Amino acid sequence: xxxxxxxxxxxxxxxxxxxxxxxxxKAMIPVGTKQKPLIEYIVRLLRYHGLTDVVLLVxxxxxxxxxxxxxxxxxxxxxTYVWDNPSYPGNAGALYxxxxxxxxxxxxxxxxxxxxxxxNLDIAALVKFHRERKAIATLALSSSYNVSVGVVEVDGTEVxxxxxxxxxxxxxxxxILVMKxxxxxLVKEILDVKESADIMGDLMPLLLNRxxxxxxxxxxxxxxxxxTTEKYEKLSPEKVDKMFLHxx
Length: 248
Description:
CATH topology: Spore Coat Polysaccharide Biosynthesis Protein SpsA, Chain A
CATH superfamily: Spore Coat Polysaccharide Biosynthesis Protein SpsA, Chain A
Radius of gyration: 19 Å
Distance between the termini: 21 Å
Number of strands: 13
Helix content: 25-40%
Structural class: alpha/beta
Order of helices and strands: EEEHEHEHEEHEEEEHHEEHH
CATH class: Alpha Beta
């Protein structure tokens, strides 16, 4: 796919996945009956949709990632590694650090993929949508998300209705977005006033505050956030095999 590179965020400590992440980088936790690392499914999904230039933003236990993937040729991709720099904290800081090192110089768009998300999203369709809309940034959003607790309707102190884990009713971000390379320059403004910079917490709101339109790519595809031990324990290996057999 021309003019675009994938940047996978896989440098965090994964504190919500402890004690697993005392031993694994969170993107390297094994999933499916074949016990392949989560990030292998990500890399294979990118390759399946024609994204063969990949930058892995590594930090905590990054050696596990480098040793497993090497240059990426075993998976049909070309991998570049950028190590986190403590001068640029946060996931937006990690992007900015990579930007400063020039790894995005030959591309106009960056597909950012959070390294704890498992999905069968059509990456090519997302990129096509982003380019057709001529967007500065496009967020992949799920239209089908259920809240994790029961919801109670009350009148004063009287319970009127109960709904166990109902649909949220609003789209939610699924950890994947496409943005123009030049948008990353704005991270410097955030780091000038804050200790760290977050993509969704800081960079996207900054774009909106500047009057820059952000597009929404709404989908009902399968996606799963493995960011906590509870979510990891509930992930069915058999379902992973069924959903991603075409990638392996």
